[in-house]
Design a protein that fits this description.
The protein has helices spanning 2-5, 10-17, 33-46, 62-76, 88-99, 114-127, 137-149, 154-160, 165-183, 189-202, 204-213, 227-236; strands at 23-26, 55-59, 84-87, 110-112, 186-188, 216-219, 243-247, 263-266. By secondary structure, the chain is of the alpha/beta class. It folds into two domains: 2-98 and 193-266, 3-Layer(aba) Sandwich (Rossmann fold), CATH 3.40.50; 110-184, Arc Repressor Mutant, subunit A. Strand 2 (55-59), helix 4 and strand 3 form a beta-alpha-beta unit. Helix 10 packs parallel to helix 12 (227-236). The longest helix is centred in the middle third of the chain and has 19 residues, at 165-183. It starts with a helix and ends with a strand.
Length: 267
């Protein structure tokens, strides 16, 4: 491992070796942020004797996840197969397949794509007698997606916009849309993270299971996190607090990025 660490510059090395507590790594494109994460995974397993299934590594795209997996595999070999490494959504789907019954869904639930969503919204508009020239499927789906990214459920949305005519109409569609999804034992892309959060927050046994399992949580491209993703990371890292996040200093990092609780590195 020491030979591997020689491949890192002093700041990268220090960030890799800082394993306990919150760690924030800020750097621009091409400066080695992902390298820090993959070397930290190897360091945890080889130097700290951490089991791969006790490490959670999250990124935003399948391409980035594949790249991180390939890099980690080059360092640690076949043990990579037991590592929880993937996108926010792929990690959450794994959790939902096991525990979504806590929300009244069957674990064989379907995930609606954009086409499925538009069809469902169209049917909701028809059943509510809403003029599709004034309220298009696309505009309503965008509004619903924005609400879900801010973790605003249909009732809360309706309460917040009860005095707004347009959003009041959208609230009715949003509510019916969610009801119809459940009737079809289906969720949409935005539900994946929100439902995982809901399960964790409403079921202490499930939260304890995953927050105990993931002794170390690492997040790539952290500047892209929205409220739901931020909340998910906070919950999963809640027991041990060993969370490493890396992000681009040219973009906005979520609110607590410069908290005094983080050890801060600039590559």
């Amino acid at each position: 491992m020491q030979n591997l660490l020689k491949e890192l510059n002093p700041k990268q090395k220090e960030a890799v070796e800082t394993t306990e507590g919150p760690c924030l790594v800020i750097a621009g494109a091409g400066s080695g942020k992902t390298k820090v994460l993959t070397y930290k995974i190897a360091y945890l397993m080889q130097e700290k004797n951490i089991k791969p299934w006790n490490i959670l590594a999250i990124t935003f795209t399948n391409k980035a996840a594949d790249e991180m997996r390939d890099r980690a595999e080059a360092l640690i070999g076949e043990n990579i197969n037991d590592l929880w490494l993937g996108t926010f959504h792929s990690i959450c789907v794994r959790i939902l397949r096991k525990f979504i019954d806590r929300l009244g869904f069957d674990t064989s639930f379907a995930i609606f794509d954009t086409s499925d969503q538009k069809t469902l919204i169209k049917n909701c508009l028809k059943d509510l007698n809403i003029d599709t020239k004034l309220f298009t499927e696309k505009s309503i789906l965008n509004e619903i997606s924005n609400a879900k990214n801010e973790m605003i459920e249909p009732k809360a949305y309706m309460d917040e916009y009860s005095n707004d005519y347009r959003k009041g109409i959208i609230a009715k569609v949003y509510s019916l849309y969610q009801q119809r999804l459940k009737q079809n034992n289906a969720i949409d892309f935005d539900d994946i993270i929100n439902f995982t959060i809901k399960i964790l927050m409403e079921n202490p046994d499930v939260l304890d299971y995953y927050s105990s399992k993931f002794k170390y949580v690492l997040v790539d491209e952290y500047q892209d996190t929205n409220k739901a993703q931020f909340t998910l990371v906070t919950l999963l890292a809640s027991k041990y607090g060993n969370v490493t996040v890396v992000g681009d200093n040219d973009q906005g990092i979520y609110s607590f990025r410069r908290s005094r609780y983080f050890k801060y590195f600039k590559l």
